[in-house]
Write a structure and sequence with these properties.
α1 links the parallel β2 and β3. The protein starts with 11 loop residues before the first strand and ends with a helix. By secondary structure, it is α+β, with helices and mostly antiparallel strands. The longest helix has 17 residues.
Length: about 80
């Protein structure tokens, strides 16, 4: 695995470590394209099951989405409570 894909404690991971496919999304909760990707990723997870490991990383585009950073903070707060 490439070093830039190294999983760390700030990543949100779904799926087994030994999955044959690893998908990393850098997402912004206000991005309409990320919203569309959500459904595609959920379908891929359904179809691939344990063959897919999905990693989500917050990437708020603050210059174009005024609430992106606060939304990312809220998501992290939810994660701290086990509700990501």
């Amino acid at each position: 695995m490439n070093s830039y894909l190294h999983i760390n404690q700030t990543d949100h991971v779904q799926g087994p470590e030994n999955a044959s496919v690893e998908l990393v999304e850098y997402g912004d909760y206000q991005c309409p394209y990320c919203r569309k990707a959500y459904y595609v990723i959920k379908e891929a997870q359904k179809e691939l099951g344990d063959k897919l490991r999905f990693i989500f990383r917050n990437f708020p585009l603050t210059e174009i989405h005024e609430n992106a950073l606060n939304t990312a903070f809220a998501a992290e707060a939810a994660d701290a409570q086990g509700k990501f």
